[in-house]
Amino acid sequence: MTQTGGAAVRTAGGTADRTGRAVSFTGAVKTFGAVRAVDGVDLEIGRGETVALLGRNGAGKSTTISLLLGLNAPDAGTVELFGSAPELAVKQGLVGAMLQEARAVPRVTVGELVGFVARRYPAPMPVARALELAGIGDLAGRRVDRLSGGQTQRVRFAVALAGNPSLIVLDEPTAALDVEARHAFWQSMRAYARRGHTVLFSTHYLEEADAHADRIVVIDRGRIVADGTGEQLKRAAGGSLVSFDLAGRATDGLALLPGVRSLEVRGDRALLRTDDSDATVIALAARDAIRGLEVSPASLDDAFLTLTSHALEPERETV
Predict the structure, then answer these.
(1) How far apart are CA 317 and CA 319, in angstroms?
(2) Which of 75, 104, 165, 259 is most buried, judged by most C-beta within 10 A?
(3) Which residues are bridge partners to 294 per DSSP?
(4) Are residues 153 and 173 in contact, defined by beta-carbon separation less than 8 angstroms?
(5) 257, 253, 251: which is closest to 281 by C-alpha?
(6) Widest CA span of the chain, in angstroms?
(7) SS3 assignment, position 239
(8) What is the rounded distance in angstroms from the CA atom of residue 154 to the CA atom of residue 151?
(9) C-alpha dihedral over 73, 79, 80, 85, to 10 degrees?
């Protein structure tokens, strides 16, 4: 699903890109020795979309982001930003990034740091505006190395905004933040996105992907295994979860009940993922198996576990 539009937009090459694409991966492959970290990724992100990249540790998220930013080159396939090579788009200030690894600069104020970065770009965002969007307008005179973890994270966001980018890439932006700091960060990000900019963020927090992304792209073992809205991914996991107490009963035949797609046993409780909860419940009632019965819609956690389950496949390392 890619948003397109007829309006001309700026590209790194200086020409008009009328396709509406901000990001385009075509058959991208990246290997490290025997490890195939990115394995034939095809992905398009339209201008103005907010997209979450979701995956387990080692799924290939960070390598995908490194290709997008031009930090690594694909061994096969292509990666383009606004119709040009990533390194050119980055150089021209079309892309801002907030990566996981960063250190506070000693004896420098927030305003000085953001101003220094802004001056590296041809058409930077005013420093005051970057600080305002990041929610730290009152910290301009504070030293960066004397801020709290949440404040430091928002400074990194302001630095990513300094070049006035059309696309911003956030790699695990709220990792290690407390609930209050995470809430403040997403308020800032939404303010940036409302300006019509494109956002790509990776996260381990499924609720963040569901709450803040127009689309969720699930990557596993270097491949995209799902791409859609949170609701679409939930439907892919099965419409509902039906659970009940086994009370010592055997599980024979439960997986064959009407509508049931999968069966999981947790302690003395059975969980049935079903496409037709009514039919499943009626069949359970006929078996007199309704003790502690609960019916709930599938969650994004359920979808994620379903999409990245490899019980029948040999494990393969990715980075």
Answers:
(1) 7
(2) 165
(3) 243
(4) yes
(5) 257
(6) 72
(7) coil
(8) 5
(9) 20
Six-digit token pair at 56? 């387990």
Contact 115, 81 (CB under 8 A): no
User: In 249-270, which positions are buried (b, 16+ CB within 10 angstroms) versus exposed (e)?
Assistant: eeeeebeebebbebbeeeeeeb
**Single pTM value for the model:** 0.77
Q: Are 94 and 166 in contact (CB under 8 A)?
A: yes
**231, amino acid identity:** E
Contact between 212 and 170 (Cβ < 8 Å): no
Kindly list the distances between the CA atom of residue 89 and the CA atoms of 10, 124, 203, in Å, as whole numbers in the listed order.
10, 14, 24
Predicted confidence (pLDDT) per residue in 238-289, tens digit: 678 899 999 999 999 999 999 998 899 999 999 998 889 999 999 999 999 9
Q: Do the Cβ atoms of 67 and 80 come closer than 8 Å?
A: no
Q: How many residues does the chain have?
A: 319
CA atoms within 13 A on the CB side of 111: 9
pLDDT above 70 (res 9): no
Question: Nearest Cα to 138, choosing from 153, 160, 155?
Answer: 155
Distances (CA, A) of 103 to 99, 143, 153, 265, 266: 11, 13, 11, 45, 43
8 Å CB contact between 200 and 99: no
